[in-house]
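Here we describe the complex-level prediction in full. Unlike the single-chain runs in Section 2.1, the three entities below were treated as one system.
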Amino acid sequence: MRTGPSAVLGRSEAADAPPRGAASASKRGGPKTAWAAHTALLPMGATVLIAYVASILWTLRISLSNSKMLPRNDWAGVAQYVNLFESDRWLTALANIGLFGLVFIAGAVVLGFLLAVFIDQKVRLEGVFRTIYLYSFSISFVACGVIWQWMFNPTLGIQRSLRSWGWESARFDWIATQDMAIYCVVIAVLWHSAGLVMAILLAGLRGIDDELWKAARIEGVPRWRYYLNIVLPQLGPSLGTAVVLLAVSVVKLFDAVVAMTNGGPGDATDVPTKFIIDNLFERQNIGLASAASVTMLVTVVIIVAPMVYARSRANAAAGRA
Amino acid sequence: MTIAASPGNTLSPRPRRAFFTPARLGVYFFLVSAALFFLLPLYVMGITSIKPMTEIREGNIFALPLAITFEPWAQAWSSACTGLECNGISVGFWNSVRILIPSLVLSVLLGSINGYALAYWRVKWAGWFFGVLMLGAFIPYPVMLYPLVRMFASVNMFQSIPNIVLIHTFFGMPIMTLLFRNYYSSLPIELFKAARIDGGSFWRIYFQLMLPMSLPIFVVALILQTTGIWNDFLLGLIFAGRENYPMTVQLNNIINSTQGEKLYNVNMAATLLASMVPLVVYFVSGRWFVRGIAAGAVKG
Amino acid sequence: MSSVSIRSLDVVLGKNRIIENLDLDIEEGEFVVLLGPSGCGKSTLLHSIAGLIDVSEGRIDIAGTDVTWADPKDRGIGMVFQSYALYPTMTVERNLSFGLRISGMDKADIKTRIDNAARMLQLTDLLQRKPAQLSGGQRQRVAIGRALVREAKVFLLDEPLSNLDAKLRAELRRELKQLHQDLGATMVHVTHDQVEAMTLATRIAVMRSGKIQQFDTPDRVYAQPSNMFVAGFLGSPSMNFVRGQLRRDGGRVRFESPALRADVSDHAFVQAPADAQAAVLGIRPEHLRQVALEAPRNAQATVGLIEPMGANKIAWLDAQGTPLAIQVDPQTVLTTGEAVGLALDAKHVCLFDAASERRL
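The structure predicted for the assembly as a whole is:
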């Protein structure tokens, strides 16, 4: 998971908001026509126009047509979208990603928070623990999917181990069951990304005035209540960042599923991105795939926009205060 | 404890304090359990990759190997079947390297030039474009994929190393630009002003003042991009071309499309091999890796 | 009865002995200031009284109870921190009531206490605001209010004014002093600012390297410092020091040095001085006056720098190599390079042993 989206949430969101901590570009000494600057920024301009704007508009166009294997220049109105939401597979994928998202985000936030809080207790070997919790984040999702596929292997993996340790009738073949396979994916991705949440929250914890704990001690506030009533409310921004990052990676979920279960058993772990890729390249139905892509885009905007809006208002308020 | 009210010469005795209170033990118990959870897959990967298949079929996934063999590693590297060919994942390794290096150079360099220009120079249209770029960081890839495929196909570049390099540059631009822009904004503007007074032009200031001062942020950028590009799967699958599949794609092929019996030890060895570069980057960079995350995420 | 009593206190942090064998008795209702440069142990002492730091040896009693090993919450103390440490996400009312609610106090009792405290501190209208919406002075009052609602016997203040700009600092200083008068509570205040100490304290404990150098009222600490460190620490500009010798001459004692000569027979010597004893004479700038060169004088000096302060002028002089500062009326005209005569007020002379730096 790239940390790209997280970057935006740390700074003022408006496109031309001045960089914090220094005079804005307009106050800096740049002359009015610095051709070198214009030409230097052309790659960025080209990237934005071509790779982002043009491609999104084109996809939108395709989603409104009857294209199958190749783009067709006709107009189908919202037919593709209707097809999409009548497709069992798409609906299953949506349900899967919804369930995955809820359980994963909740789990990652709780685990990341606990890890951050416990590490913050001035433990020995703090650096060692932190290194251990974060290394999994550096591995690819494919590798993550592969390793957990192996661990969850019904005949040779954990189930076998549990049985060989005496628990004869142990069942841990979740990965092969329709209902439980998605939770295997949850565990794998949780293992991968909880460290990120920990890192973000730990940074947030360290930003809290440590005289607050002294004041709380004097008042006789026990440590757990201190974390609950005083620390947690202050972690709002960090938690928000973590949740949005996690949500974006939920929407993008693909590699881990392909490596681990390839969508199976059946449709049990199918996810929207896989649906789109399959329709684009295997099933040759680019119209449907495009409609699905646009739907995904809208979902992301709905998730991210309030966060961005709230953050820029908070920034503005802090700037005024 | 209350003692009689005359603070005379009697000094109160020090109470015995347990070194490990229950709370403290609880903290360590949790942390160690969590550490075990995180380390378990690595352990399993490691021992599985050095066990002979007989042990794997008979034994316990957690048991230590009775007979250690490095044959799976050799196989994974040079003879595992990644689709039609059976030349091991080493092919993927070199592909990944060939993809990584130009992508790295291009994306980091452009990011730093963009960041510099945005931070210090007035370019009217740049602000809006930068805003769209930032939004682009959130957009899921599928929405942009097919048009990009068509675009590259129309100039005969589809599924080649240049293709995938450009793709990585496109999709890496938001975070790279943001990283550098924030960094350059945090430097004292007086340096830039002094350079302008000395007659520096856009490029001269960039190469002679900014670039030398950017070492820390370059390290962070390299770490972020190396990890991101090396671990990429979807983009490499679509844009690299069959001969140029990166290690992640080949790994998936080895695991999931092998006919016949699955050689789990070879699979695990291949996984470890594919993860080697990012793991090394992580362990070597330590604090810088965390800084990379923090550079993206918010401070408190 | 003393409110805080400390005996033979040793505090060791890591490898460093921060506080060594310290004794201190604070009376009820006093405003004691722990004054000293950074690293002198004043903050450590305050934190030890609060129970935030464990002591290594010694005994602390608060209001007659031995609290050496008690938890901070059982010591009957309240503490105000440099950053005020108000819980940022809670309203003023919740800030005040949080500790009480945790301890399970009855809601009605909590309300009574908060209302009382709010009335005393003029916070009644601010109860629903959050800390970010309060001014510096209001925050200080809320921080004190937290201690007040717990009916603390001793208020500990850890440099609460140090982070503020000069104007606000002066304002809050006066508020603090007024509060002390209104509440009559025992307060222990830590600062490195000697002006703060002088204006606020009923008694000042000047500290250096973990030891109390002198513990006395501001007037006495200022006029009769017990050693050169205390003498130099209080007063701005600081006391002038001149090295020289004491000479016994008949029944008189004189101080002689190349820079300055004076008859110091009226000095309250602790022990009879020896002849030719090496000594340091201390005299504050406001106790030196300019006299005509021909008039009887103690010293002669050349004018170096002049600093107009508004209410007076400080002139920095050179007396045969020894720098001296004098305070003069704003109307006095002095020019750089001018030779002036100086006379001192013998009542205000302080004499110190050159080696031990203690008061003679």
